[in-house]
């Protein structure tokens, strides 16, 4: 992986995720270069990303004044990505809330100026409203759709930056959505994650099958990072899902966190405070106990739909062996484990070091299976 911060895996992986979501290295470097040789400091990190985002907003406003709406949309989208990249590593605080609110505002402006506008949807669920954006298919009539789930610390806005029009160009709609423990539900309403992700999955499917623009018989489910738990778990018990992809294989997420905490791992992409935050507990000890429920051991035998697991050979966050265990346990007769190697690229977590081949593979696979 390109280590922008040579001695800081967490910050380097954040830079790679930002680029994966269409961030530009030159823009990032203008603001982060002073941090490369300094001692890690969260306040400086947040301010640097906020600065990079604010600069893109200013340039977007100039584009709007000149009538360059498409250029403005791209600038606002990157501003949202930069705000969120800083916010992900910022502990709960007024600074974190400000960055997140600025990200939502910038993304809304990006949508306003897009040539093909996204539709914001709000879906009723047992956990309250689940907000998302529907990326329409470039197709006539009822289209298949892929639901795209966040990972441990991602948001629907970053998901859009990662996938953009890849599904739409193949005649497939895509719903990027915040669910329990992610995005708006966590940040604005304090809704933690839950192990039984078939519950939000069923609520989302209930909504999609009522839409006149969606084919209810062709609904797929994709999850990235911890979404590699959320999506297979949802598909295991919600069989209106017709195909499932784990962009990062997960087997026993509780065991992963036990190892991280016991060794005080320096190769995690998130700070340790995030586990109690996402789990909805007051202490790390409570969070480590709760996260033991996040295992696919008993769920995957129930997953009989086509399944693709995409993993990196050198994934430092989730061991490749976990992806292999998930693959073996899945009940599907149509299943594939695609491992990207160091030699070909894309060998890191969620292929962030070279993401486009994995992104294209996933979109093509869904086009074949929906």
Write a brief caption for the model.
The chain is α/β, with parallel strands linked by helices and 370 residues long. It is built from 14 helices and eight strands. The two termini are 33 Å apart.
What does this protein structure show overall?
InterPro entries: AB_hydrolase_fold (IPR029058), FrsA-like (IPR010520), FrsA_esterase (IPR050261). It holds the Pfam family FrsA-like. An 8-stranded mixed β-sheet has the order 1-2-4-3-5-6-7-8, with helices on both faces. The radius of gyration is 19 Å and the shape is globular. Helix 4 packs antiparallel against helix 5. It is built from 14 helices and 8 strands. Helix content is 45%, strand content 14%. By secondary structure, the protein is an alpha/beta fold. The protein folds into 2 domains: 9-112, Up-down Bundle (de novo design (two linked rop proteins)), CATH 1.20.1440.110; 119-369, Rossmann fold, CATH 3.40.50.1820.
Shape: globular
CATH level-3 fold name of the largest domain = Rossmann fold
Total helical elements: 14
Biggest β-sheet: strands ordered side by side in the sheet:
1-2-4-3-5-6-7-8
Topology:
Blueprint: H1 9-20, H2 25-32, H3 42-65, H4 69-88, H5 94-112, E1 119-123, E2 130-135, E3 143-149, H6 156-163, E4 173-177, H7 183-189, H8 198-208, E5 214-224, H9 227-237, E6 243-247, H10 253-263, H11 274-279, H12 284-290, E7 307-312, H13 320-329, E8 335-340, H14 356-369
Parallel strand pairs: 3-4, 3-5, 5-6, 6-7, 7-8
Antiparallel strand pairs: 1-2, 2-4
Helix pairs in contact: 1-4, 2-3, 3-4, 4-5, 8-9
Protein name: Alpha/beta fold hydrolase
GO molecular function: hydrolase activity
Pfam families: FrsA-like
């Amino acid at each position: 992986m390109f280590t922008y911060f040579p001695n800081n895996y967490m910050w380097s992986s954040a830079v790679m995720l930002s680029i994966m979501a269409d961030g530009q290295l030159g823009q990032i470097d203008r603001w982060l270069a002073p941090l490369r040789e300094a001692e890690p400091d969260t306040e400086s990190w947040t301010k640097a990303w906020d600065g990079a985002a604010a600069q893109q907003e200013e340039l977007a406003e100039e584009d709007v004044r000149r009538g360059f709406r498409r250029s403005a949309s791209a600038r606002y989208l990157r501003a949202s990505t930069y705000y969120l990249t800083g916010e992900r590593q910022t502990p709960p605080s007024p600074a974190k809330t400000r960055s997140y609110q600025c990200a939502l505002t910038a993304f809304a402006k990006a949508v306003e100026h897009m040539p093909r506008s996204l539709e914001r949807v709000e879906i009723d669920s047992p956990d309250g409203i689940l907000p998302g954006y529907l990326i329409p298919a470039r197709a006539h009539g009822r289209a298949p759709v892929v639901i795209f789930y966040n990972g441990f610390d991602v948001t629907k806005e970053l998901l859009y930056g990662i996938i953009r029009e890849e599904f739409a160009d193949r005649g497939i709609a895509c719903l990027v959505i915040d669910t329990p423990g992610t995005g708006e539900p966590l940040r604005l309403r304090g809704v933690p994650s839950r192990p039984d992700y078939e519950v939000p999955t069923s609520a989302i499917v209930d909504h999609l099958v009522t839409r006149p623009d969606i084919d209810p018989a062709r609904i797929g489910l994709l999850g990235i990072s911890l979404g590699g738990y959320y999506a297979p778990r949802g598909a295991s018990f919600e069989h209106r899902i017709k195909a499932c992809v784990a962009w990062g294989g997960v087997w026993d997420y509780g065991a992963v966190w036990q190892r991280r905490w016991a060794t005080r791992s320096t190769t995690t992409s998130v700070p340790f405070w995030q586990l109690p935050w996402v789990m909805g507990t007051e202490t790390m000890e409570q969070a480590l106990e709760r996260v033991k429920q996040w295992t696919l051991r008993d769920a995957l035998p129930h997953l009989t739909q086509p399944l693709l697991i995409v993993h990196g050979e050198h994934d430092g966050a989730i061991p490749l062996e976990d992806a292999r265990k998930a693959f073996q346990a899945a009940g599907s007769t149509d299943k594939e484990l695609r491992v990207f190697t160091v030699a070909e690229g894309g060998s890191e977590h969620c292929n962030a070091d070279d993401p486009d081949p994995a992104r294209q593979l996933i979109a093509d696979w869904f086009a074949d299976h929906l």
